[in-house]
Structure formats: structure tokens, C-alpha cells
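Let's see one such:

===
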Amino acid sequence: MALLGALSIATAACAPSAPGNSQPPATSAASAPATSPPASPESATPQATPGDPTHLRLAPFAIGLNSPVNVANAGDGSGRLFVNEQDGVIRVIGPGGTVRTEPFLDIRRLVLSGGEQGLLGLAFHPGFPGQPRVFVDYTRVPDGATVIAEYRANAERADPASQRVLLVIAQPFANHNGGQLAFGPDGDLYIGMGDGGSGGDPFGNGQNTRALLGKVLRIDVDGPQAAGKAYAIPVDNPFAAGGAHPGAGAPEVWAYGLRNPWRFSFDAANGDLYIGDVGQGAWEEIDRQAGGSHGGQDYGWNVMEGRHCYRGACDPSAYVAPIAEYGHDQGCAVIGGSVYRGSQQPVLRGVYVFADDCSGTFFSLQVDRGRLAPRVVLESHKSISSFGTAENGEIYAADLGGAITHLVAD
């Protein structure tokens, strides 16, 4: 299936957008998502106790955006949010929700957009603005290959003429591009890559440790460049020279067996990595990697879909099982979220919140208490494309219809 309100999906019962559940031919891409005004926010039922949210609502924050697919902050003390519009523009939203007219970056001429393609990821260097560098993930014109690029930037704008390409990864099909970028607690850049698209992972990329597709990659953007590369390889990557399995895979690979890790995030309290991996036709999953992990986890695709054998008999014990899953009776494309570590919503502390793009359902996992059965906390009926956190730890959701909303527990 596919992704994103305008990112196509194959399940007729789902809304026309979802990351990684469509199966378009190699040369096709879905049309750009609609930008109709968002519906009014859901009301909350104030019955929650600390650490046990039972219902959330979406408080309006910013409107007027064009198919927002990513939300990030700069970590510079400004309180601003930065939002990727799918067609190749990054917008700045002030702390009060005002969208600045002038874009932070406009690279529309470079970006192949539509369906599951576009300007999909953004990460600010952890030392920004002292380190005036930002990193983006986009699918390029004309072939749809994934590009990871660095731009020079100040507090107001990134310089479109300063592009330095770090990595180009060919995409055999137009779907399952991944797209998430995030710096980990270790200061390395993590990159989410889908399995290359179509359906069922026809090239076996998920289980091929030498392929960069179907993976979470980890690179060092500050160290001396490795031979033939525009970045350094962390010496403790599992397949790097100093890793646990040197030479047994591509040195950039950190974790594998993923179908479309559209959105992932790090828990600010302990460095745990949470991955929302979009399923094929039956199960959506949340994977977790403990902070301090040495990498090398195999999450099972395309042998497993969630906790279930995808093709005939298999041995589930050979793979790292997801911490949570839900079936396609509740949606068809998981949007990975965040663990709440802010202070304004005490009931959410230590709770992981995520959603489904097709159904608009929001779920919670009480990870600090070890309760990992997904609980439905909101039926938004919106096309949720992404989550992001502000510098103060508050969680925001992007709606493909053009709005950014603040997650609130009353």
C-alpha cells in the first residue's frame, strides 16, 4: 500500500493517502494531495489520570500549508517549527502559529513530487546555528532517486545554491521511499529507507544487508570522509570495520528488515528509537530499539509482516518482533510518532503517540509503564502525514489538508 493523503494507497477502503501501501508501476506517481481546509478539531473527554491518557484532541496551531509531510525544530531556542511541503518548500512557523511568507528553503525545481515522493525529510545539525547546516531527504527529478543533501543555513533561511549531495540511492519504483532524517543522541544522522516499492519487496531488499533499501542507515556527517563517500562511517556500525559483523553488509546499514520506515523518532529521555513501519496488506507495526544499542537488528520484512509470517511458514524467533501492531480493520498506513517528554500535558509523560494515515486514528502506548497494547485515543478523520516535537517537547501533527495541530490531553 502507500502513504500520505496524496500519497497513494491500494486499499480501496482507506483514504487516498498513505505511506507505503500502494503498489504503482515503476514509472508512475500519484497526483499531488488535495489541500482542502482541515475539519474542526476533535473534542476531548477529560477522564485521564497521570500516565493514562484515554482521549486526546487536536488544537489548531497553523493553517494554509501545501501538503505538509514533515515537522521539525531547529534546537536553536527560537521555539519555531519547520514544515516540509511535499512539493519542495520548507516553511517556518513561529511560536504563535504564524506561517512566515518567505520560505526557509525552496528546492521545487529539484524535487519529483506526488504519490509517496517529494521533499520528505529535514534535520538540523545538533550544533545549529553554530554549525550552520541542515540536511534534507527528497526524491529527485527526473528519476525519483532518493537524495540526502546538506545545505548551509542561518537562522532565517537555507541557501539553495549551497547544496552538497551526501548520498544518492536509486529507487526501482515510485513508492516506499522512506524519508525520515533524525540525529540520534550519538550525533550521527539516521536515515529511513523503504524497500524500493512495488509490493512484497520483489528484489528482497529488506533482508539483503548489502542493499541500502529497506533499512535504517547511520552516517557521520562530521568525521573525515570515507573513501569514495561524502561522509564518514561510524566505526561501530554493525557492518563497518569496527562493528559486530564487519564486511557482512553495507557499512551504512544500522537496522534492516523494514518495509517503509516512513517516520521514526528518538525518545529524549533514554535514546530509545521508535520506528513506524508501514505494512503490506494486513498489519502495521511499531518497532523499538533500545538506547545504547549496537544496531544490526532484523525486523523481519519480507519474511514477517508485524508478528505474522508473510509468506508461508517461518520462524518468528529469528527476527526482532515489533512492540505493537494493529490490523487493517483500524487503518492501512502507520505514521510513527513520538514519546511525550514535555511538561504541558502531564497525563502524556512517557507515552508514545502515533497514528494511521488512512483512518486518522490516533493510538497511545504507555511505554514508561510497559503497556504496549495500542489504545485508541482519538478518531480524527484526518489524513495525518507526520508528527514532530517542538523544543519544549510538545507534539504536533501534520494534516495533509494543510494544517499543523497541537496534541492536547485535557
The CA atoms of residues 70 and 84 lie 5 Å apart. The chain is about 0% helix and 30% strand. The chain has a mean pLDDT of 90. The two ends are 35 Å apart (CA to CA).
